[in-house]
Write a structure and sequence with these properties.
The chain is mostly helical. The chain is built from 7 helices and 2 strands; from the N terminus they run αααββαααα. The chain has a two-stranded antiparallel sheet with strand order 1-2.
Amino acid sequence: MTISLLPAGPADDVPYEPWEGEDEALAAAAAAGRRAAAWILCLPCPSVAAPVSAWLTGELPDAIETATAILDPGDCDRMGADGLMVNGTGGVDAETMSVLAAVPCAVQEALWLTPDQQMRLVAVASLIHGAVRLLAEDPGSAIMHGQLARVWALVDHAIA
């Protein structure tokens, strides 16, 4: 069997065309991120300062709000100019994704939070992390078939 790669030009050769409903989907993402960040900032603080408490009241809500505000369906998985797959980032940088991925480990040190609050934090961070990957891997389905809207409904349920 012979495998031949199709010629691929630079990504700049193909103009980006927004998906139907993209603006609304991205506005809903930013709003959900703001609500989630505000919820995190309303969580109780420890009686004695702890390193993870500063992270929970600063870096984490900022990462959640940033990730949902800068989503970019144009930064999706694609074929590079060399014919190799390029993993998209959904518009979110690696540092922000790293903060979201660290929540399941870091939340274990937030002993002043109830198990329910800890689980809700993990759920929110995981949902947003997953939404970024979903948008990077399949922006059409994520936007046009309401998959992102379902993620934001789950985020709202977790912070309720």
